[in-house]
Amino acid sequence: MGRALVWDATCVDSLAASHLPSTSQKAAAAAESAQMLKRPKMFLLRQAVSNARQLAPSVRAMSSKGPLVDLTVDNDGVAIMTLQRPPVNSLNLDLLKEISKSLDDVAKNKSRGMILTSSSPTVFSAGLDIMEMYKPDMKRAEEFWTTLQDVWFKLYGSSFATAAAINGHAPAGGCLLSMSCEYRAMVGGKFTIGLNETALGIVAPKWFMDTMCRTISMRQAELALTTAKMFTVDEALKCELIDEIATDKADAINKCKTFLKKFEKIPPLARAITKLKMREEPIKNLQTSRQADVQEFLSFLKNPKVQQSLEMYIQALKQKAAK
Amino acid sequence: MGRALVWDATCVDSLAASHLPSTSQKAAAAAESAQMLKRPKMFLLRQAVSNARQLAPSVRAMSSKGPLVDLTVDNDGVAIMTLQRPPVNSLNLDLLKEISKSLDDVAKNKSRGMILTSSSPTVFSAGLDIMEMYKPDMKRAEEFWTTLQDVWFKLYGSSFATAAAINGHAPAGGCLLSMSCEYRAMVGGKFTIGLNETALGIVAPKWFMDTMCRTISMRQAELALTTAKMFTVDEALKCELIDEIATDKADAINKCKTFLKKFEKIPPLARAITKLKMREEPIKNLQTSRQADVQEFLSFLKNPKVQQSLEMYIQALKQKAAK
Amino acid sequence: MGRALVWDATCVDSLAASHLPSTSQKAAAAAESAQMLKRPKMFLLRQAVSNARQLAPSVRAMSSKGPLVDLTVDNDGVAIMTLQRPPVNSLNLDLLKEISKSLDDVAKNKSRGMILTSSSPTVFSAGLDIMEMYKPDMKRAEEFWTTLQDVWFKLYGSSFATAAAINGHAPAGGCLLSMSCEYRAMVGGKFTIGLNETALGIVAPKWFMDTMCRTISMRQAELALTTAKMFTVDEALKCELIDEIATDKADAINKCKTFLKKFEKIPPLARAITKLKMREEPIKNLQTSRQADVQEFLSFLKNPKVQQSLEMYIQALKQKAAK
């Protein structure tokens, strides 16, 4: 968008810069006005983001210490969400519920952005807790899967900006959480990341696949998903599964903050709507198949062979732990 | 497609070469015949390209000097379309109308291909002219947006081959025009290119996004659109937003010509239908949502906050120009 | 998927490894159980793969010598399918029928995977045999195209793992066959690969395009398809049209085997369903447009200009062979 009549050649070099609103008032007005650009189906979204324009002074009040998720806001107004369910942040119903509630808190409190990380020195998240699948109470199992879907809707489709500081292994569901963010900085060294569901005889749901296909190429996603590939940090960087390699957790968080700072002068509403228009298709896909997706998971759990397989897996883990 | 019975091992090395028709008569026949490969919905397209088989001798008659677009055909039979609305080729209704008409001329006159460039030494096109959006006459605003859609349909979906010689900055609508071509050579140095709409509080329409997602990866497109990224020439080359870096405008045009020469021995109709089959999805998407897309734009303009934001922006530009 | 309660920090480093089932019994159970993850529309698929869990002892019985396709199983239990229709493996109805039948044999006999290669020292496959298109019997032509579709459905949508050892030129249909596999190792040197249909005045069907767009980027696919690009081996590796460069045929086959070995500890059913979920969209697209796709091909053959073009092409080939 340029304004030709009042421009002369001398202002051309500052073309891009001049597009940045110079006052916060102007930014707010521009953001507000952009509301009209959305399609009707974006109506609910509009309400969710309508107040997301600036960091509110009340934001530090959001800090909370839950048993499984620590949510604080640092001096820059960035929310840090730390998963802290030892030893490996396995995603059980309780942890998923706390993540879901914490995502609501970040949305309500108008944070400038959120960084997802882990309290473990070696694991970002080990993925879904198989104890939620072994001899399950079906009512709880349904709540478990529905909550996982909720977490993905809230994280992948958040109006606030998101980044993952991946400070440990991130298999399966751990990889999904990080891919649902807008940016990934991962601590270098021995850690690995990937959707390795097939190794356990499991098929990743279509929305896991969709999320990966919008992070790396379809070709690389097919290779990774079928071979249960756990990427080293270098491999992940090369195919853009992660965006940067960090030296340690603090560095990963700093790199995420540097990413979030890019939005400082971008009107938040225009940013949020742009993000959601880009992510509209996979979100709509799960919205329309949500119930079928739950039923698929429950049928899977009811299969005696699945239960037998899980029992053997749990026995193997116990023996390993006993050594 | 090979013919086994009459081949022996000695002709194998010239396999690819033998696929190239050796006479223009043959090429014409092959092109004609390829008509039957298209689907019924491609019927209108077929008519549009049915005469696009060879450079007609009449092609130099196309040369014309409009006030805002210069259209000439060079000695190689390539049409050069130069945007010349000083100072920064802001896309107002008049310029868009001339571009639209010029694209019709290129299509009618069976050019061997078209190169889009700018008369400005520093700006390819600054994008949409915000004076078309500030306190607009609604009838004119509707014509403005409809004409922009027309230009995209005609350029992105052209049956003739297209390339952009990007000899200056190309933000927002300027980036869109270049991405709608089939090839991009950009003059190196300080120039930048990108869809930076969010910086102004604006959301790029879905068809801008679709066009970018078919040029660079979805991952890179999301990053670029949400952060309003203006790519340096080196960054643009790395993620394939542009295809080549040129030393100056003449070099950029030469590189575009070299690209267009690749089609010399390709039957034009098969080439055109292949291009349009590849681009069918985004074109169909806008065709089916065209009216909604216009209404979205008009609603946006009717919002008082939008008008307020535009006024502030124009004031800022005026003050900058006055210094 | 991790099990937190029984884990401590010492077992974290073996996180990925611990996901690999340690006994074949467990793998079988896990595979079986994964059946429940599929959607209803995957029902037929389920039957096709339900027995694909392990290499059956009977697998060597599959070896057969057809006139046009040689199918053997090596000591590692991998099926090697060799196209052997001299001189250039042009795909006529007879060859396509044998390929189709051989793919059924591999599926029935629970092979650990299949490698597709050629008996020719210089051509993988020259693509469709134009003698099937020149003055055709329409009933045979319909069978020809339907069989080509069948081969693609069976190869692109196979439940067993596939790789192509590309030991020679692979234009048009030859490129399609290799892209339909899950991995490509190509012998280096002078050989080329690509969908070069436009050079003959032909438009590649949409499912050829879909297959390429899921192998390389859409941007590169458009460039390649419109320019009839035959990639050198180095170019093909760079844009990921192939995965590896081999020194000779034996090396190409070894590289394919190394790829197939990655699936040794992956439960085959979970692998198969994951592959098919990833490939679901293009498969569904052709399933729903299959009849229209046949009619398009037949209309193409009925066009007198097409027949004239083919006659000229055949004459040119005959003259070349006579020299």
Describe the structure.
The structure is a homotrimer of 323-residue chains. The first copy, chain A, is of the alpha/beta class and 323 residues long. The first copy, chain A, has helices at 15-18, 24-34, 43-49, 93-108, 138-156, 172-180, 206-213, 218-227, 233-238, 249-261, 268-278, 280-302, 304-322, and strands at residues 64-65, 69-73, 79-83, 90-91, 114-118, 127-128, 162-166, 170-171, 184-187, 192-194, 231-232, 244-246. In chain A, the strands form three sheets. In chain A, strands 1-2-3-5-7-9-12 form a seven-stranded mixed sheet, sandwiched between helices. In chain A, helix 4 runs parallel beside helix 5 and helix 5 runs antiparallel to helix 12 (280-302). The first copy, chain A, is globular, with a radius of gyration of 21 Å. Mean pLDDT of chain A is 82; it is low at 1-61. Chains B and C meet through helix 1, helix 2 and helix 11 of B and helix 8, helix 12 and helix 13 of C.
Summed up:
3 copies of one chain form a homotrimer. With 323 residues, the first copy, chain A, is an alpha/beta fold. Chain A is built from 13 helices and 12 strands.
Structure characteristics:
homotrimer; 323 residues; alpha/beta; seven-stranded mixed sheet; three-stranded mixed sheet; mitochondrion (chains A, B, C)
